[in-house]
Amino acid sequence: MSAGAWKELGITYLQYLELCSKTLRGCLKPELMAAAIRRGESILKFSKWESGKQGELKIVPNITSEVARKNAASGSTDN
C-alpha cells in the first residue's frame, strides 16, 4: 500500500495501522498468534466533559469491523 493509499480508502492513519497490525499478527506461528491477538485487542471509550461533569460515555466501535463493513457496502475486497 502506498504512503497515501489509506487516504484513498477513506480511513484514518490509525485505522490503517490497525489493519497492518492485524495482517502481521495473522502471519505469526499459531503458538505466538494467540498472545499477539490478545495484546492487540482494545476498546476505546470516551465522554465529553462540560462544567466539570462527565457526559455520556460512548464506546468507539472496532475500527477493523467498520472498514470491513464499508468495503462490503461498496463492493471492495480490499482490507
UniProtKB/TrEMBL annotation:
Short name of any one Pfam family annotated for the protein: ATP-synt_Eps
GO cellular component, one term: proton-transporting ATP synthase complex
Organism, scientific name: Mitosporidium daphniae
Record-given protein name: Uncharacterized protein
Similarity field: Belongs to the eukaryotic ATPase epsilon family.
Residues forming coiled coils: none
Signal sequence coordinates: none
One Gene Ontology biological process: proton motive force-driven mitochondrial ATP synthesis
An MF annotation (GO) of this entry: proton-transporting ATP synthase activity, rotational mechanism
Record-linked InterPro entries: ATP_synth_F1_esu_mt (IPR006721), ATP_synth_F1_esu_sf_mt (IPR036742)
Entry-linked CDD domains: F1-ATPase_epsilon (cd12153)
PANTHER family: ATP SYNTHASE EPSILON CHAIN, MITOCHONDRIAL, ATP SYNTHASE SUBUNIT EPSILON, MITOCHONDRIAL
